[in-house]
Structure of tRNA (guanine(46)-N(7))-methyltransferase:
Amino acid sequence: WSSAFGDARGRPLLVDVGTAKGGFIKALSTERAEAFTRAKQGVEFNLLGVEIYPPLVRQANAWVRANEARLRLPVHFVSANVNVSLESMNLPNVRAVCVQFPDPWSRGRHFERRVMTPEFARALANVLPSGGELFCCSDVKALASEMYDVVAANDDFIIDEATYARPVRNRRWLRANPYEAFTERDIVCEGKWRPVYR
């Protein structure tokens, strides 16, 4: 990881799971870098996008090389299936993990392919330190509720109810993305006035 980030052991790490083309990480590393750093009390983060599809990772890392002069925070993309390999990746200094718009795998026979499972929640709890952040969102309400329930069922996580403000059927959702950086899917939802459940 030192070759990817230089000072990887010194800075906290934000991991974006299922980063796709990396729009969220790209925004955090460039135009949203200052706002993100301010929101984190001046602490600068390393940013890692993890995506299962190697071609998207190659494209994202090519973007990093082409935009090196614009980068305000160190960024890297890797191809991995986090459901199987998160703990074995030996990620340094993880402080935040984002799981945004995972594939809903709506057909019953594909449910086991969903990212947020009890096993994955346990792996996240093992990787994140006490006080670390987990941010999940989806534009599929049933999937967002399921992710919420899986995380809430794990005693290693504390859901900060004080930060939730929008009650929807006995569940409270965040009003806005706390990172103020957006995935490609966020942008599509915004354009179509489609709600996002965070």
